[in-house]
Amino acid sequence: MDNTHVGLRQLGQNVSRVMERVKRGEILVVTEFGKPIAKISPVREPQTLEEAVEMGQITPASADLAEFLAREPLPSGDGELLSETLERMRRDER
After folding, report:
1. How far is CA 49 from CA 59, 67, 83, 93, in A?
2. Confidence (pTM)
3. 89 partner at 20 to 30 Å CA-CA among 27, 51, 67, 73?
4. 75 falls in which pLDDT band (50, 70, 90)?
């Protein structure tokens, strides 16, 4: 078994040591009787919006919100409430 795998018994007996490895950035696969059962990985720090844009995870807005709302006004709100719509839809499914 390679260095990225840790047995369940080994994990139980060496939790602090294993967690130190994870804190250093390692991703470890926990095995039981040689079969993978879990993965332990470090928690990623929250990204800034700029980093998310650079990685292509999000796209920056292409227009100003005020300009958009001026072109596409919000609905007046005199229609059915969302909660009422959901209730009706659930009732109709029965």
Report:
1. 10, 22, 33, 41
2. 0.49
3. 73
4. confident
Give CA 60 to chain center in angstroms.
20
pLDDT value of position 94? 81
3-class SS shares of the chain: helix, strand, coil, % to 5? 45, 15, 45
User: CA–CA separation, 29 vs 8, rounded Å?
Assistant: 10
Per the listing, tokens 């080994």 go with 10
Strand 35-40 vs strand 28-32: parallel, antiparallel, or unpaired? antiparallel
Contact residues for 49 (Cβ-Cβ < 8 A; gap 6+): 58
Closest CA to 27 of 5, 10, 2: 5
Give the pLDDT of residue 1: 58
